[in-house]
Amino acid sequence: MHPDTELIAFLKEELAAPDRARVARHLEDCAECRETAAAFRELFAELASTTPDPPEMLWGHYEAELRAKLRERERRWGILPATRSWRPTATRSRRPATTWSGRSAATWSWSPALRIALAASAAGIILVFALDAGDRARIHAPDPIALEQTVIGSQLDLLQNYDLVERLDLLEDLDVIRQLDRDG
Amino acid sequence: VNSCDREPSDEALCQRVAGRDEAAFDLLVERYRERAYRLAWSILRDVEDARDLSQEAFIRLYQTAGSFAGRARFSTWFYRILVNLCLDHRRKDRWWRRTIAREQSADVQGGSIIERHPAPAGNPVAELDRARTMTRLWAEVDRLSPQQRTVVLLHVLEELRSAEIAAVLGCSEATARVHLHRALRALRKTMEKDDRSQ
User: Fold this and answer.
1) Which of B49, B135, B181 to mutate to test the interface with A (most CBs of A within 10 A)?
2) Which of A20, A28, A48, A66 is most buried (CB neighbours < 10 A)?
């Protein structure tokens, strides 16, 4: 059986020693995989050596603009409930451990029902703004969008637990899925 | 604080930002502004959007620094904010329309990779061939799915490991590798087709 996606881990030197040895042995015997590995190595090298540079940026102007945006946002946070106001008043020196998504068992005291209600309220606000603003709601969307995204972002870990959801975009390539299931 | 050079680590600075330390925020902006702009531009291929979204990522960083758990590297956490913003923007903004328009006018504007990577002195014909090949290669990268393209960019620009790429994209390590494998397979196919047609 060809290593396929394991070949990527092999080329990125991420395999444990036994797996690395197994893939290396396979490459010795399989001309097709050897050719693929060589082509992928060449592509890595070509991509790395020819990465296009973005147009020049005036960093002084960039930082001044960022500062102005931040001040404006802070001014609005003073009116609307800001994310930081959700956090407890724990100081840095005794801040409890938080999770990847920013939730903390010790400090995040919202009940599940309250969180759902908060998410529903945020979604309602978003709907109103979306209907009102239409296509104009883009990067400069009002703070409720940022608020809603933060709420959804805090639930991302939940979504990641669903393998099917995670693999939906792979459905077009059944061979790869079969390979994953075999590997898994 | 790193013991060797006494420079505060990114993670330590982020903790200070959570306490609204503006000097720490400025330092993080200085460290990451070019990488953030470059990565956003590489995903979006639009200067204005790249500037806006990289700035927005810094604002989100300032706003949510307290949620940084410190289990992953700061860079991984920050790239996740930035990449999510960029991918969301592409989904919402009919990104492909402007990309097609840009491709159609690339010759007029001189914005192709050939101009950005002028051939060094040497065999001009060979260098021109190589520049054309690279233009095709990156044009093909632009045509990959957003996830595949982002995985390629995180690998090439930031040299992230599969586990870090997975953390940025919020997927499993295996899925990150599948994205990269499929991207390379597509790029290889295109390049081989080009070789045969030459």
Assistant:
1) B181
2) A66
| Pairwise CB contact (< 8 Å): A52 & B184 | no
| Confidence at A156, pLDDT banded by 50, 70, 90 | low
* List of residues 6+ apart from B65 with CB closer than 8 A: B14, B15, B17, B18
- One-letter amino acid at A76 equals R
CA dihedral B64, B70, B71, B72 (to 10 degrees): 70
ipTM attached to this prediction: 0.79
DSSP string, A10-29: HHTT-S-HHHHHHHHHHHHH
Give the Cα separation of A53 and B117 in Å (integer).
9
Q: Give the pair of three-digit tokens for residue B43.
A: 């995903």
Over residues B19-43, the pLDDT tens digits come to 999 999 999 999 999 999 999 999 9
Interval B66-83: pLDDT, tens: 999 888 899 999 999 999
> How far, in Å, CA of B103 to CA of B86, rounded?
20
Contact list, B62 vs chain A (CB under 8 Å) = 70
CB contact B143 to A (< 8 Å): no
With 0-12 CB in 10 A as exposed, 13-18 as middle and 19+ as buried, what is A166? middle
Q: Are B17 and B61 in contact (CB under 8 A)?
A: yes
pLDDT tens, residue by residue, B151-181: 999 999 999 999 999 999 999 999 999 999 9
In B, which residues are within 8 Å of A155 by CB distance?
none
C-alpha to C-alpha distance for B156 and B179, rounded to whole angstroms: 14
- State the Cα–Cα distance between residues B79 and B158, nearest whole angstrom: 10
